[in-house]
Amino acid sequence: MMMYQGLSLLRSLFLSLLLLLPTSVFGCADHTGRQRGHLSKRQGVSGTNPSFITTDWAYDASYNWGAIQRDYAECQTGTQQSPIALSLTNGLSQYHHPTFQGYDRKVMGNWTNWGYGPSFTLDHPLDEYTGLPSVHWDDEVAYLKGWHIHAPADHSVGGDRSKAEMHLVHVNAEGEEVAVLAIRLDPGSSAMPFFAQLPEMVPFVTGPGRSPNQDPSSAPEGENKPEVVKDVEMDMSLVLAGVYRFNEFWTYKGSLTSPPCREGIRWFMARTIAFTSVDQMRAILGACTYSAREEQEVWLHEINSA
Questions:
Q1: At a CB cut-off of 8 Å and minimum separation 6, what does 215 contact?
Q2: Cα-flanking dihedrals φ and ψ of residue 54, to 5°?
Q3: Which of 117, 132, 189, 208 has the most CB atoms in a 10 Å sphere around its CB?
Q4: pLDDT digits (tens, 9 = 90+) for 65-93
Q5: Residue 205 DSSP code
Q6: CA–CA gap between residue 155 and residue 184 (Å, rounded)
């Protein structure tokens, strides 16, 4: 009994300290890209790195997100929260088959680190998204705004969690996130062509006596800050080829995997794992720090439903 009370006291103390911390932890990649030759800025986005967002929450305390502020309530009360555990016992989807347009042409964008791992944001005219590569399912269409990597993987499949997971974030014509295509990444025996085309990985921010989750703009003079490599050309068809263009997949109704945990996101998870070389995976993990939300209980997610 004494041990249980002690653990409860420590947990309460940790939550109190977390709420007192400055807003210096990063949110899921914002993918605010280069628009007509300049870096877009908006509230909560670092001017040093537009994909680097200061926040008041942390992945290693995701159980507490709903208590941090009222805007995060859906993290606690939502009925379709992500990520979830998937399995072949769910079967594979026979509905909502994704098809792709514009993925077979090369795109330009910004290559950086969103604070937790590699990130790429496509160039596009200000507030115009319909010219970007797109995914189509049923009567829906969404446009690729960018991609980023979580490590370890957000979703487990059959109880196994891959070393990393890539999220291709798609928005509607107004720029609101509506769909995520998720691809698990694991080391294999040969190089993955998609990653072979990329520049050197941009590391996450760290420094003496500083958390790797600290806002890069707050780093003292002389310390490294996350680099943004502009005008990077990328062939997005290579990542689709690595998972057979999502010919086998799970799909469900879910949410964003970071606060405010907004629901209404259509998730597609490729059954096929994309395999990198050992060196590629080491480079990816070397640019990552922990960014997996605790898996959520399956509730009204309608996995593979019509």
A1: 24, 26, 46, 52, 54
A2: -80, 135
A3: 117
A4: 999 999 999 999 999 999 999 999 999 99
A5: P
A6: 8
